[in-house]
Amino acid sequence: MRRAGWLAMAVAATGTLCAQAPFTVTPGAISFGNVVAGTITTARAVTLTAAPNSAITITSISSDLHEFVLFNVPAGSFFLSAGEPVTIAVAFAPDALANFNGKITVTGMSSFSAAPFTQTVSLTGTGSAPFSVSPASLSFGNVLLGCNASQAVTITPLVPLDFSLTASGSGFSVSQTSFSAFTNQNVAVTFKPPAQGSASGSLTIIASQQGATIQTVTIALGGVGVDLTVTPNTIDFGTVVLGTTSAGQTVHLATNPPVSGSFQVSSGNSVFAATPVSSNGDTQITFTPSSAGSVTSTLTLAFTGSDPSCPIVRTLSVTGTGAVVAPTISPTSIDFGNVAVGTTSQPPQTATLTNNSTVSLNGTVSSSNSSFLFSPASFTLGGSKSQSFNLNFKPPSVGPQTGVITFTLATLATSGPPSAALSTTVAFTTTVTLAVKGQGQACDLSLSPTSSLDFGDVGVQSSATQSVTVTDSGGGQCDVTATAAGGPFAVSPGSFSLTAGKSQQVSISFAPTAAGSLQGTATFAATGVSRSLTLAGRGVLAPAPPPCVKSGATCAPVLPGGTISLPRTLVGSSNTIEVDLNNSAGVVASVNSITTNDPVFALENLPKLPASVPPGGSLSFVVRFLPDLPRLTNATLNIDSSTFSLIGTGVVTGATINGTGGTVGPAQQPNVGVTLGQSYKTPLTGRLTLTFGSNALGAPDDPAIQFAGGGRSINFTLPAGATAALFGSANQIAFQSGTVAGAVRFAATFADAAGNDVTPPTPPSGSVTINRSGPVISSATLANRSSSGFQVVIVGFATTREVNLFDGQFTGASGATLRINNLPVNVGTAFANFFNSTAAALFGGLFNLTVPFTVDGDINTIRSFSFTLSNGDGASAATQVTVSP
What we know:
mainly beta; five-stranded mixed sheet; 1 helix; 70 strands
């Protein structure tokens, strides 16, 4: 391989050559300054002059920016003789608001040099706006609602322009919307806030020439609407008694947002008075009614800010009612009758005081005779409300007593300077009286409880006892007799004596003998006095006790609405459970009926009903489940008014799996089926499942062992009246026995038409066995035969997944002598490695073995080759392949 090379030559020259420029350009720089965008300046001259001693050809003149426009440039190339000038022009036409930096480039060829010569002119200029606006934004600050504020905007044009102005934003307007100008123009912008709070907008100014827009400027507008708030916005003084002044109510005036100014309040009716209480807008309002009835008026509220001609005015609705007070007492007199000296009359007498006006009143109570007691002593009585008082008589001595109970009622009003703490004075007072009398006596009795005694529910054949306290509330000794009448009531003790202020505990018992409500009276009598109690009680029977299901020594309770489950039961047989009704109520319980609504649940050993169950007693019966069909059965157990669910499942009887119990050969398709011991009048479904347990090396599964349709589970049906299961339309289903020794086990489950499991407690099952055996050769073929050798391809299986020995026998051609006739080979390790591999697990005991042979000599001297495979359980049949014809 040859590598290409390079040949390089270099010539070096040194020195300096100076020559005069062939032409000049003046001026060398031009500044146009600020120029309104969209306009063009007057052209400025640029002169090109050939050198005095040289003619020149100008080949090009150009501007690098289109904003710099060239004029008077000769077309194409042109010639200048020595010292000859030529003038061109350049103007600036900015099209944007920006700084522009450019240049003019002039290129020419001199007669002294073959190289072109270039001169440049620097160009600068700035594009300026056609007009300016001052200020850049407007803020109107705080403006009262209903008022307005104006500010001026100055527009300064640099050229004659047509202007269009538009104000946007709620509350903003402009005094002029269009005009033409070349000098300063002042325009008024006005803000009239439409609502309280911050407002924002904008003023858009568009400048145009001959209908074309050349500049748009937008300035921001802002302002705040100031409102006057009145809190509250209505006042109701309610009802105030004529001639009195209400408590003051404060009205707060405020601007939102706060601004400086002054507040004013005026009233439209003299009964409502307004008095400022602070400089910050707080005003106190009072109501002094001059006549009865409702009065409504309006207060005018105003705020004046920096512009006295434009205040904010709001109104406040005020109302109140003048009222006349005339309370009444009922009854107007009370007679307490005879009361033992030194004791307090019981029960208290009641008097009701009614406020017939709508004014709230405060009251106090006093008595002219301390023997007459009252409660409460002070109170507040709302408008149109009533107050009850408890009145008692406690005579200090024997004989008559009289007195007057006085109820004093007053309304309260406020007076004093409203800016200070208000003082309280009584503005109205009235009284109502109640006459009272009573008689003091020597012996009296009082009871606790005072009037009645209710025993509530008491179980029949049981009893309950309560106590009554009898007190001598008179001034002397009482000999008391106690009796009970009108029912199963008893009093103990029946007689006793009491001295003044002493008490006796008396027991009253209630012992019902039958169910139902009972009443009676307990009477306590002494000379000149008798007191009684109303007695009541109900004899009751407890409801039927809830059931519990007996299981050995335990009993599981079931609440009403709950479920009682019977064991799964073969159709044609039965199962029972014991149900106990245990009375833990402490009273006699009644059981009236026990029924079911389905005859498959039979009730046995029922007691005679109705039955009574004493406290701690029990009632038992048996529920027998007699299923007539394989199905889930729901029924109802009724115990009096309580309902319980009964659930039982009848399961199939005598189900078997056909075709099992023996052995089958490997790689076969035997049949199995499912048969019932009897037919049923309802259809059933089921599922037959097989599993496999290996008896081979490593105990592997054989995926080939499955039903003919695929998988290890298959559904079947049992039509009504049939005993043989249908797999599709056939009574049996085939399965593949595979190539691994072991046991194939079958199990069947059943379900009723609703999908409920009706498999017997011991599901039907069966199995078949694939026995261990020596290897089986399915086929052997000769492959890849050549003059130097051949291969034997063997397909077969080993149910034990074990092959130890390959034993071959060569047969020579007629007259030929072979050096090797017998060829035993230990293949145990090779087969063990194969069967233990992941790939082999998918094929059970199947294998595909290729055995190569190399022939040293003439292969035609070998007629055939026969061989066997063997393991610990035996050897295969001998198989032969032909090597040479």
